Amino acid sequence: MPSVRDVLNTMDYGPAPEAETHVADWLKAHAQGFGHFIGGAFVPSTGGGRFPVDNPARGTRIAEVAAGTPADIDAAVAAARRAQAPWAALSGHERARHLYALARTIQKRERFLAVLETLDNGKPIRESRDIDVPLVARHFYHHAGWAEMLESEFPAYAPVGVCGQIIPWNFPLLMLAWKIAPALAAGNTIVLKPAEFTPLTALAFAEICRETGLPEGVVNIVTGDGETGAALVAHPGVDKIAFTGSTEVGRLIRRATAGSGKKLSLELGGKSPFIVFEDADLDGAVEGVVDAIWFNGGQVCCAGSRLLVQEGIHERFLAKLKRRMAGLVTGEPMDKSVDVGAIVAPVQLRRIRELVAKGEAEGGVLHQAGGKLPETGSFFPPTLITEVEPASTVAEVEIFGPVAVAMTFRTPAEAVQIANHSRYGLAASIWTENVNLALDTAARMKAGVVWINSTNLFDAGAGFGGYRESGFGREGGREGLYEYLVPAWRKAQASASGEARVAPPLVAVPEAGASLGAVPTIDRTAKLYIGGRQARPDSGYGYTVRAPGGAALGQAGLGNRKDIRNAVEAAAGAGGWGGASAHNRAQVLYYIAENLAARAAEFESRLVTFGQEPDAARREVEAALRRTFFYAAQADKYDGRVHATKTRHVTLAMPEPFGAMGILCPDDAPLLGLVSLVMPAIAMGNRVVVVPSESAPLAATDLYQVLDTSDLPGGVVNIVTGPRAELAKTLAEHHDVAALWYFGEPAGLAGVEAASAGNLKPVWSHGGARIDWFSPVEGQGAEYLRNATQVKNIWVPYGE
Ligand code: NAI
């Protein structure tokens, strides 16, 4: 028997297993297999199929669950549909009571859920008990609050409807909570598919829904694999898909939902940098690495998997880190003294091994924690790979295991460059005692979450989600709620018994050649507008623009792929606009309005040539002016928030511009439509490539002179006329276009959304809805500004 002194010296103490009898009894009671949870009851799969669920740490079978078929998905969606209107018709307070009851019951079952999670997933009981499950309860409490406040805080919004939610295996119950709580608060109903490796806590949650009296059909859970998930994605009765998982599947889902009108949010992979500057508290940073990459065995989408260490402290820091890594205990996750548990499944273990072998083959040097790994189950020791090049496979690919790769940098600028050298953009962690350096680096990170002197902090009150190929949409807090809401006017329009809404009247089509007053002469050939200059189209051709009656009004440039590429390059190069002060941007917008006013008569007569009555034309120009004023006013007022999250932290939610955006304009209201889209986008600091209405482009080309005389830096607004569908596709495929707004022909949306899957840029449109551009509710507002920005949540140490 070792003495206390021996134990303190070796830190080699005996096992401290968590009791698992309650969960074992529950599993035994379901030995005949778990069904799906549909319409408030547990039902077997229609096909009768089942699949096994294993404990990854022991390699033992612990349950069998139903294999979801398309018919099961049908039944679940039908149940959710039946339940949706009554659920949404409850008062916010009534829904809050249900969410509160779920939170309370989860809290009462905390230990049970933690044990079940660990048996199913293999994560250390210490983590499921102290992190996952408390955050689950917190999420339901927080969203009970949003349900209560929904009517007062989101008065112009309605629930989306039936939501399909697909979640991964790394935080099974927590991801369920992140998806279900906001959806319920906002009045949606749900069909959720847990990951095939880890369905059990979702089924335990289904029992809790029953126990708390959640109305039947509000939450439905269908177990199954990727095929079941694909059936849910494809189901026409689903109004929104929320997905967390691999970028690869995210891309498939983007393509599968293209043109369907389904709302989509994607939370995908990452390869997040963990930057240690030479003035950092090194011991703190070492503990940070432990939490960044060895928490949950590195099976964390926002894991700090790329260590960037400043050259001067590199050796000292790695020596400390290796010492700390050596003390980590990997083993049976039900043991309370274990630091690193099991890898979720043999297939994941193989993937980790292959990638690590590749890292060695590429010249990386491997360091691993010692200690004996259990003989059964899937385990991989905490690992550090040094001597890694930023362009090597292990520095670029998400390993999703307990493996950090380490690189060095010399200057802060170089750190930023290496950190942003990734197709992902989920998170970043910054370690320095210098507040200027910390905040400056945070601002430069292309990432949706930034932790300063901290890492892997989560809270229901803060938004979470990525930039770039880490996906789009946010989960958590106010930002996350928007993912489960749509503007009420759109909902009203959709439910108006399929009736197409009457567009604002486009009056009196003039006859060809009819006298129209100040009609421009036919030889006026508009070029494109790129980088602040009029540019001849690459094709060398123009096309004839005709009035509705057929009369030729002039020529517009026939833009092509090359012109779009040039325009995107100009937009990408005009980054200074995003860094300009909001006041400066507002001034430029006011100046545009002023110049537009000075040329109002010219614009009016242009609209008249397109068949508008002079009064209607005057109204449109006046509305375009007012809209420009509105967004000039908003430029310095649509700003961020400070979320109250953890103690000794504040979380700054900063709306940031996307960068280069593509905008496809509508045909109706050719001037007002364009202005309604371009002004909010540039007010927020984006640079835009605009494709005007194909049939009425001259209102846009008339703007060139206005833009030229308004102090707008070259490249902030670029205008390419021509075949809209073709140009839209080029914009959608372009990797330097970070977001796309599509308000062209509804039929073109499917192609654009599918083409956007390349770099997973968000595509915003109102689907097939007909927008009244004159309406301040439909054609203007915070919804436009919100879609022109992505929120970066920066966690800053603050307070006692
Ligand atoms: P995955 O993306 O295949 O699985 C996530 C969920 O999507 C599961 O519920 C799965 O059944 C479902 N799914 C799979 N194919 C689908 C389809 N075609 N349509 C609809 N749903 C579908 O992730 P997987 O294969 O389990 O893990 C592979 C890699 O993905 C990991 O090594 C890791 O790199 C990454 N990953 C990232 C996660 C994150 O949180 N960002 C979570 C899980 C995995």
From TrEMBL:
The active site is at residue 267. One of its GO terms (molecular function) is oxidoreductase activity, acting on the aldehyde or oxo group of donors, NAD or NADP as acceptor. Gene3D superfamilies: Aldehyde Dehydrogenase, Chain A, domain 1, Aldehyde Dehydrogenase, Chain A, domain 2. Keywords: Oxidation, Oxidoreductase. The keyword Oxidoreductase applies. Signal peptide: none annotated. Residues 43-485, 550-768 form the Aldehyde dehydrogenase domain. It holds the Pfam family Aldedh. Belongs to the aldehyde dehydrogenase family. This is NADP-dependent aldehyde dehydrogenase. It comes from Aureimonas endophytica.
